[in-house]
Specification:
Blueprint (H helix, E strand, L loop, with lengths): L1 H20 L3 H11 L4 H25 L5 H23 L3 H26 L12 H18 L3 H12 L4 H27 L6 H21 L5 H21 L8 H43 L5
Helix pairs in contact: 1-2, 1-8, 1-9, 2-3, 2-10, 3-8, 3-9, 4-6, 4-8, 5-10, 5-11, 6-7, 7-8, 10-11
Length: 306
């Protein structure tokens, strides 16, 4: 019962982050399941089964608050579902000893990308309103769906920064559209895992616990997406993903690091993580302080009506 309660809390917190940032439910919950010794394919299957419910609730909540671009949902979600099915099949064919460090390496890579992307560059807004082409969304969806299934998460970490980096869709609609299209990805990945694995290694009580936590958080996250600074949250989530999965890599047969090495690596990551969050907070405050000035300057250049 204690483990189920913990999983529900993790599901709640992960969905709060995912619903407000457009990423991290899968990578956060999968990282925890790997940490407690779950088979990689079973961990990803468990998370994707839970995500069928959480993404449906999240999508409905984002739609309710006007955070969804349905054209983007369809053009990225359908190829994403294809990629997720292929990724689930690929992961299911790997043995546990190989799959666990492979998955952790994918998650570390995603974590580094999130941390650097949001800490260094923040959000781009100079191209808002320009159309997103299918030739961009299709391959992006296919790749993000494949990474999502093989890494236990990755739809948001790949898709959300890519759409934000394009600068063509406002952040709240990027997050809402990615969260909504993830429903298609979760269904396809779950079908792939169930066909390849059956129910082997999947604890459906864990699925329900993660689902319940996510269902509670989904409408809250959709409401607060307008108020939380994505830059700071991105730095925080990226560091958490890196720290969690580096621990798995250092203990794997690939590395098999000693306690001293592990300690040095953990301290270095923690220091870099703290510095990244501090920088993001500072930059967010600077941007917030400059915004009223920019607005006043724009108003001063606007001629008075005759």
């Amino acid at each position: 019962m204690r483990k189920l309660t913990l999983l529900a809390i993790v599901g709640l917190l992960a969905q709060l982050v995912d619903g407000s940032l457009g990423m991290a439910y899968g990578v956060t919950t999968t990282s925890l399941l790997l940490l407690i010794g779950t088979n990689p394919a079973a961990a990803s299957a468990t998370v994707h089964l839970a995500e069928i419910g959480t993404t449906l609730a999240s999508g409905a909540s984002h739609w309710r608050f006007g955070n969804v671009d349905w054209g983007v949902v369809v053009r990225i979600g359908v190829p994403g579902a294809v990629g997720a099915f292929l990724g689930a099949t690929a992961l299911s064919s790997l043995d546990t000893a190989t799959a666990k460090p492979v998955m952790s390496l994918i998650l570390v890579t995603l974590g580094v990308y999130i941390l650097v992307r949001f800490t260094v560059r923040g959000l781009r807004t100079d191209r808002l309103g320009q159309p997103l082409r299918a030739r961009f969304l299709g391959p992006l969806g296919l790749f993000a769906g494949f990474v999502d299934a093989t890494g236990g998460g990755g739809w948001g970490p790949v898709g959300t920064p890519a759409l934000l980096a394009s600068g063509r869709i406002e952040p709240r609609k990027t997050i809402g559209s990615i969260d909504t299209s993830e429903f298609l990805v979760s269904v396809a990945a779950s079908i792939g895992f169930l066909l390849a694995l059956g129910s082997q290694g999947i604890d459906f009580a864990w699925v329900v616990a993660l689902l319940l936590g996510g269902l509670v958080a989904a409408p809250i996250a959709a409401w607060i997406v307008r108020h939380l600074p994505p830059r700071v949250l991105g730095s925080a989530v990226g560091g958490l993903i890196i720290l969690t999965n580096v621990r798995t890599l250092l203990g794997s047969s690939w590395v098999n690091a000693g306690d001293t090495t592990k300690g040095i690596v953990y301290v270095a990551i923690a220091a870099a993580w703290a510095g990244a969050i501090a920088w993001s907070v500072s930059e967010h405050r600077s941007d917030a302080a400059l915004s009223p000035v920019a607005e006043r300057d724009e108003e001063s250049l606007t001629p008075d009506p005759v």
